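Hi there, hope your week has been kind to you so far. Thanks so much in advance, here it is:
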Amino acid sequence: MRISTLPGLSTKRLNALSTEGIRSEKDLLNFFPRRYLDRSNVQKIKHLMGSGEEVTVVGKVVNLQEVGFKRSKRLEIAINDGTGIIKGVWFRGASYFKKIFKEGDLVAFFGPAKRYGKSITIAHPEVDKLSEEGDVSNFSKIVPIYPSNKEFSKTRLTNKIVAGWIEILLNRITIKEFLPEALVKEMKFPSRAEAYRMIHFPEDHSEHKRALNRFKFEELFLFEMSMEKIHHTVEERKTGHIFSDTGNYTSKYFNELLPFQLTEGQVSCLTDIKKDVRSGKQMNRLIQGDVGAGKTVVAIGALLMALDNGFQAAFLAPTEILAEQHYRTLADHLKGLDINVRLLVGGQKSKLRMDVLTDLEGGGCQIVVGTHAIIQEDVRFHKLGLAVIDEQHRFGVKQRAELLNKGYHPHILVMSATPIPRSLAMTVYADLDISIIKGLPAGRKPIRTAIRGNKKREGVWDFVQTEVNDGGQVYVIYPLVEESEALDLKDATAGYENIKKRFTNFNVGLLHGRMKSDEKDSVMKAFIANEIQILVSTTVIEVGVDVPNASVMIIEHAERFGLSQLHQLRGRIGRGERQSYCILMPDVKVSKAGAFRLKTMEETNDGFKIAEADLKLRGPGDFLGTKQSGLPDFKVADIVEDQFILAQAKEKARELISKDAELVLPENKSLKMMFEPYHKEKAAFYGMG
């Protein structure tokens, strides 16, 4: 049955449904209620206390009027349930509510009821229009309340009509089960057909909750199945080089050249890598660690394993300045091993670039460090065995796939500087094995963080004077390049001029986004060399740039920054043995969310705790900051709230793929029909199609 054959479904209503993504019977069945109105929980207006208690009331609109002037102007909508009258009051959005409600409409108000004199009001209640006619006694015990919008209101597309259409579909359509019977029984799920009935027309609250859990699991299970299948494809199709020898390079570096003891976390990660590269399968591993946890040493261990077995290795960074720093770091660490390390970046002169390319193809270059330029087609390796990718979130999944296919299927090691909450790692990086480095290297002191208001600014500058006199260096971070009247933020240029006047005996540098790349590089190199003692900068200071001598960071308007951003900025200090300090200087007015971010920073240095808090504040899409991240567009599941279901889905997907990767067993026939088109799209995105 076509959706257009439903009774009362005009062209205008079809267009209204399309604004919610409803274009088919399947879409309409998957248009789940956003809440449920339980008639047994609807209070009579005459019984309300009006002391701020959360209430649900249902009644007919008896009056709409705008009252007051200017700032006190408001819309009041009075409803009567036959026992009394309550007012909904709106100080904002009045024009919208005036358009969608009229006298006689049956509506439900949700919110805190407060008594003012003889009348009770709810300020900015959540509102649902229930139907065009009828009264409270007509609706069943639990009423589904569907999402609505302006187009629904214009076409009089009420809750009652939507529910009626869905009821028709449920009576006419045969809903097929696709989860294996054994899994449905094990998870104690209702059948798929029953789950649709339970979510749209529940007998009690436990029914719609059970149904929703099933639909969340379905969504996460299909995704995790796809990731397991991709993982399986990498392991099965692409045999990896076997690095069986722990030769001279590796043993000499760790036993003779490394000036400190490895942490337990570093040893654990190196053990995982060694196991991968000896398995005969292609390694595809993510190394997670907090800022300064010692990921570079782990990467060097992996690079040397490749060299010991006669292979070349590549090290990719997201920017040229970081690539140059990694190049310097590797050259410094490996100088006692006579290893040929070359740098390949976009801005090189053609003669030098050609020399590096020739050296790579001939096999003379053992390790190449560079940006994404390494992935380009004109770069040919003699025998590439391993690629290390730093700063994973700046490399799309497709670029990783390009590397997987470069050379003879090199082992891939990804290093993420931003700690990724477990739930996100299980989705965005589900095609990777994950190792976590916990703890900081010996000698590193935890950074001390403090919040200081504008009244204590002079004391902060005195502290800066003392630190620089003692040989330290300072970052002063601003959130903007130019002054913004709307946000009333000081810009870095004005701050730079003031600080130059305040500290005439020190060299003060400026770094901001409008500068050319070579200008930025010049300033950063001068700061690294301690030719600049105080660096005033916007957030363009690169993640991963090491200035071991930098011991103080002052962050102006700190409340404007995200939590992960604040943590990354703070991670630029504390790289040496000096005690380091991060001073957060917020504006006078700080929002509730801003205050939470600052307090979290003051209370912990743990990047994983900070990442979890940030994910809860911002949600997964905003946390990652890019649709190219590979984060799926889940319709019902929420990877922050549904971590337990996500873990279950991953476990069951892994079990199933390990037993029947091609889904050929009879019990998996229906699952195969549902899964194959879903997986085709995912595999194409991940470059595995």
Remarks:
- The longest helix spans residues 205-237.
